[in-house]
């Protein structure tokens, strides 16, 4: 602006510099996103950069016509020629540049208003959502509104136990997939989920104790006892999953690899456990008469499979038919999975009031 006012820059060159300045200002928004984890901030910065760069690019295509239009509008408003010099200064050029800058922004805004969906898509494409570690589910929030009757409080507890079971199932699926597929990315969220299971169990236990102190009948007392057992065993599943996750981390560090046969066995066993947890989650929501029969069947299948696979692996180790270190890791993983199957059976018994 100073150079133009002193007559050192003509109007076309000064207007070109003003357009270039719009590109330069985009660096401010880009720099402000450094270190930020807010994905919307990054996308807003990308959109701002595209808004100015694309707008300037389009304006350069019609730059001569753009200059003529600015001159006509400014002259029409009563301002003298851009080149007019008074006392050695170009007294009118500032108005021309201001009008040009304003016209550029208005035109650019109208253009991108029509193209807004594409601008948004481009900003999202340039700043994709990074995969985040799993977020901890919300902890139980119980209240004393329904203290007159245990029916509503127990319904609340059931829904929270369902959420615990679903979380335990998802976490186990991730850890099993990590071990079976040698995928370290699947280990990202197990600590958060395990902490949730620990805290949720404490909250549920405390609330069940509170309900137990109310005037309740025998059926409600039995249901409370079942919920205690379910919450404790789901939390134990979380502990075993934690052991599996830590074991998997050590495996990746030492670069232990299983044979195809061992991977097949592990997938088979983890699929059995997964089906048991599926059955439990379904039973919590939609009880059915054949549940315990199915639970017995799965539990017996897990025990038979575990004993068979463990015996076969020990036999191969004794015959030096497989590597010692992977074989021992294999047995440990199988032991943890079989233990989780036992916890699932305890939950099944609690659901049906057995023991």
Note down, in words, how this protein is organized.
The protein has 355 residues and is mainly α. The protein folds into two domains: 2-126, no CATH class; 151-352, Phosphate transport system protein phou homolog 2, domain 2 (Methane Monooxygenase Hydroxylase, Chain G, domain 1, Up-down Bundle). It contains 13 helices and two strands; from the N terminus they run αααααββαααααααα. The protein has helices spanning 2-5, 11-24, 26-32, 39-61, 63-76, 93-114, 116-126, 151-181, 190-212, 218-254, 260-285, 291-318, 324-352, and strands at residues 85-86, 89-90. Strands 1-2 form a two-stranded antiparallel ribbon. β1 and β2 form a beta hairpin. The relative contact order is 0.08. The model has no long low-confidence stretch (mean pLDDT 83).
SSE inventory with pairings:
Elements: H1 2-5, H2 11-24, H3 26-32, H4 39-61, H5 63-76, E1 85-86, E2 89-90, H6 93-114, H7 116-126, H8 151-181, H9 190-212, H10 218-254, H11 260-285, H12 291-318, H13 324-352
Antiparallel strand pairs: 1-2
Helix pairs in contact: 2-4, 2-6, 3-4, 4-6, 4-7, 5-6, 8-9, 8-10, 8-11, 9-10, 10-13, 11-12, 11-13, 12-13
The CATH architecture assignment of the largest domain turns out to be Up-down Bundle
- The assigned structural class equals mainly alpha
Poorly predicted segments: none
**Sheet of most strands:** 2 strands, antiparallel
| Number of E-state strands | 2
Order of helices and strands: HHHHHEEHHHHHHHH
Q: Can you tell me the overall shape?
A: elongated
Radius of gyration: 34 Å
* Number of structurally distinct domains: 2
Largest sheet strand order: 1-2
Beta-strand share of residues: under 5%
What fold name goes in the CATH topology slot of the largest domain?
A: Methane Monooxygenase Hydroxylase, Chain G, domain 1
CATH superfamily of the largest domain: Phosphate transport system protein phou homolog 2, domain 2
Summarize model confidence as the mean pLDDT.
83
Number of helices: 13
Percent of residues in helical segments? over 70%
